[in-house]
Write the structure tokens for this entry.
Amino acid sequence: MLFAMIFRRSVPMLRRHCVFLAALAATSPLEAVTATQEILIRGGTVVTSERRFDADVRVRDGTIVEIGTGLAAGAGARVIDATGLRVMPGGVDPHVHLGGRTRDDYRTGSQAALAGGITTISNFAFPAGEQTLAEAIEREAAVIGEQAIADVILHAGITPGTEQAEMTTLGGETGQTSTKIFMVWTTFDAAVPNHMATMAEAGRAGILTMVHCEDWPILAHAIAELTAAERTSLEYFPDSRPVLAEVVACQRAVAMAEATGAPIYAVHVSSAGALRVLQEARDRGLSVFVETRPIYLHFTRERFEGPDRGLYVGQPPLREQADQDALWAGIASGSVHVLATDHVAYRREEKLDPSQTISSHRAGLSNLQVVRPMLYSEGVVRGRISEERFVAVTSTNAARLFGLYPRKGTIAVGSDADIVLWDPNETRTIRDEDMFSGAGFSVYSGWEVTGWPVMTLRRGEVVYENGEVLAGAGSGELLRRGRWRAP
Ligand SMILES: [Zn+2]
């Protein structure tokens, strides 16, 4: 039985429990096709973030070796008929939470991702006790080596005790060129001078700083007022985390980026106001990048009026229709760079636990398996965004920002053969029983979607086909990444 966690402490606590879950992970008896076998994907339509074209794709030794029309199969090649299918780069999800008290480890998280056409996932490495960031990454690397099936990147979690010198060693030693700071932590304000020095050093070292933009004092004030009025139930969750807190935090984060010259990446942007602040900063030439999250595209705050409101708890909360419209417009125009899941797996009964309040609750939703089908159906099929934008926000832009491009994030000769074969016409109803996540349910169950991943290749291996994940735990890799460069 899990207990509700105080939200502002939840993330670092999660990470410390990761190692224990590792011991519980089972391995799959199924083995994937060997990576050395040639695979010829024939007759499909290749889609990248830039263009669409009909072509065959030859894969050998884990890599895309040829793209062209009328390619002949080599001896012993597996030929895959992709007639009527899209051939798209595997998804890159740079915002995932695995391990700890949640229900997904690297194995089940990978399975959910691969079944949803995502081949690179991520996690956060928080130092436990006196650990350095590099030691925290080393600790996670060992677990990834045993559990992961998808490829993985790690973001070092900055704490008030992080030393600036760690930035210079981070990229070089660990190959993990991103960090995250949390403006939502009670410890943030006192640590701002240290955070700014760390951010400046990160900028010089080519490391991207991710920022959770919610201003703690404004949240604390809203929570105190609601508590005084005895409005602590989750019905008031959206009121407990006002847009103002996100807007102010984005303004401060932009100011920190401007003062230090360092690039920032705002995670899970949820409101039109916050998006406007970040967009204005970009218009002034600052290196400011924007991520949003599926729940803000598909739900609005009315969900908190219903009895199953606990299912929708995430930080920041669901907003108004105008906010949702602004995020869709941002994806279409390019001012939203990345759609990432902020995947956190809790079981339905945990999310609906009636003891939760505005100040103590399980934040986050399981999203890895359906983020791309939902975006394709609601975005591409409904005519809001192009297929190229779909690829850009679910794969290419994250690969560029997190130092993986062009190894990941595109279909090109020399790139890893991380490929999803996508049926643009397949209509499915999302169902709990098809979910690989340990959450055991999807908040989107019952939604009918058009566009579905039918096969996923990771580094040239068919790792997902016919509803089954074919590769075993430990076949995923912790990827070494390049230093951040302006994309
Ligand atoms: Zn998160």
Notes: The longest helix spans residues 188-205.
